[in-house]
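Q: Could you fold this chain for me?
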Amino acid sequence: MSIRQNRDWEIKEFEVTSESVYRSRRSLLKSMGMGGLIVGTAPLLAACEDNTPIVYENDPSAPLYPVKRNTRYVLDRPTTAENLATTYNNFYEFGSQKKIWRAAQALPLRPWLVEIDGLVEKPITIAIDDLLKKMPLEERLYRFRCVEAWSMAVPWSGFALKALVDFAKPLGSAKYLQMETFLNPKKAPGQRQGWYPWPYREGLTIAEATNELAFIATGLYGKPIPKQNGAPLRLAVPWKYGFKSVKSIARFTFTEHRPVTFWEKVQGQEYGFWANVNPKVSHRCWSQATERVLGKRGRVATQLFNGYGDYVADLYKGMEGERLYT
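A: Sure. Below is the predicted structure, expressed as structure tokens.
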């Protein structure tokens, strides 16, 4: 009989606060600076209560949820209130303000085709619902740390990114996985802003993509993932800053060349390819030593790799010359 011992930052699953306890929410406002196309530095401030209902798409995948939780992944803090996690979002395709969840409802989710191409045995385009049938769905509790120094903890549903890599059958020459969002400026007004390099593009090394933590989220809080949170496919890499977690993915490309990512193109000195969380490496405009947990007062200490170093630190050995933490 094997006995699993929790890491020092973990709590037992039964200690995780129930979602139902966290139904009330505070709106949090933060200004978004456009000078130099960088994120503003105003602190997160509690605002008036907002009882706006959570909106979910009438999604054909709804019968798939809830899915069984993988108890290997636990939290050191309560889960964030569902209506806070679904109404305090970054989604530049629909605007630069946090409260863009209403605008994001314009995103059509069906039909949704997923293209898998590049250095693979056979490129394929597959409908989202057909892809979901082929993937082993589970729920994971993950922390999320935004580069803006706020954080949350949520139950994602979805599948290990490695399962998609295995499905794609990349060639041995593939060194990176590039991911792109949809491109539909008629529905997404932010994509009409020509100073941004649309579509949103992100990338991982193959080693990162096949690490056990790398996850494709298709659900949230036991339901299909809402549009504003990145429906129908969203990357979740909890050891990296949140801008790496590309939303509404429509294309996976396997390549031998390192992708130049969206924010790397916009402001590469501040938002790099790796974006691993490190409390000792400050953003140019603010410290990363602490973070604001959404729905809580005060700040908590930020952890290296967002507390997931046991899983991922070995990925970066021998890479001291890389800018791993921006």
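A (continued): Confidence is low (pLDDT under 50) at residues 1-49.
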